[in-house]
Amino acid sequence: MEEWLRFLEINAPRILELTLDHAILVTLAIIVALLIGVPLGIYLTTNEYLAGTVLQVASVTLTIPSIALFGVMIPIFSIINQGIGFLPAFVALVLYSQLPIIRNTYTAIKNVNPEMRDAAIGMGMKTSQRLLRVEIPNALPVIMAGVRTAVVLNIGIGVIAAYIGAGGLGVLITQGISRGDNYLIISGSLAVALLAIIADAILLFIQKRFTTKGIAN
Amino acid sequence: MITFNHVTKRYNEEKTAVKDLNFTVEKGNIVVLLGPSGCGKTTLLRMVNRLESISEGNIVINEQDSMDLNAIELRRKVGYVIQSNGLFPNMTIEENVMIVPDLLGWTKKEKRERFDYLMKLIGLDPKIYRKRFPHELSGGQQQRIGVVRALAADPPVMLMDEPFGALDPIIREKIQDEFLQIQREVKKTILFVSHDIDEAIKMGDKIVLLRDGEIMQYDTPSEMLTHPKNEFVSQFFGKDRAIKSLSLHTVKNLQEVIGLAHIDDAIEDTKTINVNQDLRNTISMLLNQEADQVIVTDDQGERIGSITIDLVQKYLHFEIKGKLSVSQEG
Question: Which H or E run contains B206?
Fold first, then answer.
């Protein structure tokens, strides 16, 4: 126990800094993923043919092992001299988030009661009004479930990003493994787990906050 | 007023849902589109607010061709009620009811006043329900909200697609009565889809009976019951159509035409019936009790005479033979 305290005394600032790096990487990736995935998911509900293809591609992306995807990023981003570091990791995480976000958005909008949609159109709502006032609010819990899945997934995959020099909590774990330092490995792993739990709790709070009482249950 | 001119709906070469229909819904009237499933009644209704396209012909709403307006504008001017009420679960009752006024850009104050007025119309306290959500209301209340939502921006024309079809019979009858009461006040031009004959007779000033997209007969309920134009119409209304037609007449109608009988005080234990009740209920009362008469009371509860089976039969005879014309309440 004393050794733990001594370890933390020395390493706490570094752990915090790496946690912050990790959180920033994942947050930025999710924001961009949302900006792409939600509009795309909504658009796909109007284009059945494209929907099949896009969802298939997104599924395949998710099956690529993360270490392999990071590997593929290196030669591609070397073209613009960004082969390792933040950018390739960021792009990989955006790609990994697409499936849960697109699929959940698509399914949630598709599953809005057709009679509700009929009523909205019949009362003279424009497409944008129908989406913003009726379809998205009613689809929000399912869309948010997709976002939460993507965030937790990304926090885990973000650990691997340390291998391509993107920083984050993966650094502690990889260093710990190469040095045989259990303190580093355990503190890194715990920090990742804690980050995932906290992020999920925050998102759940946001989801509850923006879901009206009418569809809360 | 809604006028249908040679309205046709074709899906492809073989399938025609609506064939060259011509009829007019007069201002302030309820016209019921009645017919077996697949007869094209819902398609026809949805062509009015352009949820379905028109293949040929045109629909004129209050002297304006429906195709001259932008579809969005048109729909905001036409009230629309559907069977499953279509309330939006994410919105409060007030937000739900005020959707069209909101789309039209009414002020907060205007919306609030209108909401209060409409809720009083259906006998719900606006204060209690303003902030509630649809799932907190009973099925009957939700359907009432669905109806006043269509009335919100005071459209001259309303489309109702089996609005009471999902309700249980007792509530349905109650809401039908309520709605007729409201209609007497608001006098909208209404196109009403139903597959329920009793509902059509009760709600319709006129009925359009459809089969395979063609009009079999367009008439008042009583004409349709007493003078069916063809085999299909008489079969559709059934062998008991004479009994059905009784629900079109009240004891008061009978009193005005042939008068009531005197009360025979020798008969004990007779039931009473209000003068505004229809003859169908009266006949069932007469058949249900041993005595030969039912005492008729006026709105103040005064006994004003009695009615017997003979009397109803006599009245019906005059009616069907068309010897007398009596104003009828839909």
Answer: strand B206-211
Out of A44-48, B1-5, B196-200, B263-267, least confident range: B263-267
With 60 as the cut, is the pLDDT of residue A24 above it? yes
Task: State ipTM.
Answer: 0.79
Q: Roughly what angle, to the nearest 10 degrees, separates helices B279-288 and B309-321? A: 150
> Rounded to a whole number, what is the distance in Å from the CA of A204 to chain B's nearest CA?
18
Selected residue with higher pLDDT from B57 and B253: B57
pLDDT tens readout for residues B182-241: 999 899 999 999 999 989 999 999 999 999 999 999 999 988 888 889 999 989 988 787
> CB distance from A129 to chain B under 8 Å?
yes
Q: What is the DSSP letter of A89?
A: H
User: Which residues in chain B have their CB less than 8 angstroms from residue A138's CB?
Assistant: 88-90
A114 touches chain B (CB under 8 A): no
Beta-bridged to residue B215, according to DSSP, are B210
Asked if A169 and A159 count as a contact pair (C-beta separation under 8 A), the reply is yes
**Chain B interface test: which of A121, A123, A130 (most B C-beta within 10 Å):** A123
For residue B243, being part of any structural domain is answered with no
Q: Do A189 and A22 touch, CB atoms closer than 8 A?
A: no
Spans of all domains in chain A: 15-209
> Contacts of residue A124 in chain B, CB cutoff 8 Å?
72-76, 100, 103
The whole-number pLDDT of residue B323 equals 46
Distance from the Cα of A140 to chain B's closest Cα (Å) equals 10
Is the CB of A116 less than 8 angstroms away from the CB of B51?
Answer: no
CB proximity B179 to A under 8 Å: no
Lay out the sheet containing B64-65: strands in order across.
B16-25, B2-10, B56-61, B64-65
Element containing residue A71 per DSSP (H, E): helix A66-78
- Same domain for B57 and B109? yes
- Please check whether residues B207 and B306 belong to one and the same domain: no
CB B242 within 8 A of CB B283: no
How far does B89 lie from chain A, in Å, by closest CA? 5
The domain of B276 spans 249-321
Within this chain, do residues B176 and B153 fall inside the same structural domain, yes or no?
yes
Q: How many domains does chain B have?
A: 2
CB contact, 8 Å: B91 with chain A? yes
Q: Closest approach of chain B CAs to the CA of A124, in angstroms? A: 5
Last residue of a domain, one of B238, B257, B290: B238
The domain that holds B38 is classified in CATH as 3.40.50.300
Helix (H, G, I), strand (E, B) or coil at B130: coil
The CATH number of A15-209 is 1.10.3720.10
Closest-CA residue of chain A to B92: A214
Q: What is the C-alpha separation between B286 and B313, in angstroms, rounded?
A: 12
